[in-house]
Every structure is written in structure tokens, then in C-alpha cells.
Fold this sequence. Notes:
By secondary structure, this protein is of the alpha+beta class. It has two domains: 2-80 and 190-197, 3-Layer(aba) Sandwich (Glutaredoxin), CATH 3.40.30; 89-188, Glutathione S-transferase Yfyf (Class Pi), Chain A, domain 2 (Up-down Bundle), CATH 1.20.1050. It has eight helices and five strands.
Amino acid sequence: MKLFYKAGACSLSPHIALAEAGLAFEIEAVDLHSKRTASGADFLAINPKGYVPALLLDDGELLTEGPAIVQYIADQVPDKALAPAHGSRARYQLQGWLNFIGSELQKSCGAFFNPVAGDDWKAAARANLLRRLAYLDEQLGRCEFLLGAHYSVADGYLFTALRWMAPIGIDLSPWPHLQAYRERIGARPAVRAALAAEGLA
């Protein structure tokens, strides 16, 4: 498998999932402005959507969209329990968290990385983020991970999103449970390995 990524972007989440899964994989960086990969390939020919993450499977099929990719990765190694079993209520809770992170955190953060975003858009995005971070802090005050006592691919995704807070000017110090969670996830060997491979640690 090959993961196409941009350092520190949402593609860090499936990178962490691959490392946690212990699967054999390669990574290749993408310049999202030029749409060229590190090897000089036309990224649009690989993924016409033009953004990361994109996971090229060994049979040549391409998977896109981070929440789908991390669930696929988890399902390749069910013994690692990176995602609850299909059909279980916990699996739907996982999907709920993946959608929450994508729509409420990643989408709001996008305003701060969009050069055409105006002050009103950024102010609305910031207000939404503050509400959602307060909610997460409350949730994580009751459990170690998003699904309770066990790490899942949703935790890798939330960790990825929390890394964007400092660059966009949001200090996590008002939310001690969230701070402790970020440090706890960041200390996992697979997370440290993914960060190092992307030149982020």
C-alpha cells in the first residue's frame, strides 16, 4: 500500500492508523499546489479529487476520504481492535466520532488555511471550534479515549485535528482533559513514528 500525504495535514490520521496496524506501507508526499508527488507524478492522474489522503492498495484500487481509509485499515487487522466490529453499536459510535471530527473540527479549521476566507468566516469557525473543544474536554474527562477504555482510529484523527489548534491561534490550556489527551496520544510509539516520518518530530 502507498499513502499519499501532505505533512501534518488530515492524511496524518491514516498514516497513524497504518503505523498502529503494523501493516507494510509506503508514503509519498504531495505538493497540493502543483499537484505533483515527490517522485514527480501527476497527482491528479492518481486522485482526480486533487487532495489527500489517498491510499493506493496493492491491487491498484484507490481509496480516498480519511474516515473511510482509517476504517479500511482497521478492518485489515481486527486483532488490533482499532475499530469495533461491523454491525456493533460501538462501530456506529466510531463513525459518529469520525464524522464529528471531520465536519466540526477539520471543516472549521479549514477557514484558517483558506486564503480567501474573510474575517467573518474565521470568526464563525473559531466560535464553533471553541464550543466543540469544550464538548470534547467534557467527554474526555470521563474516559481515556473517544470510545471509552480502548484506543481507536478516531483517536488518531482527533490527535491530528488538535495539532492544528496552535497554528490557528487556539490555546488548549482552558481544557485540561483535552491537553492531557493530546499528550497521551502523542506519546504512543506509532504516533511518534508517523510524526517522525513526516518530519514533524
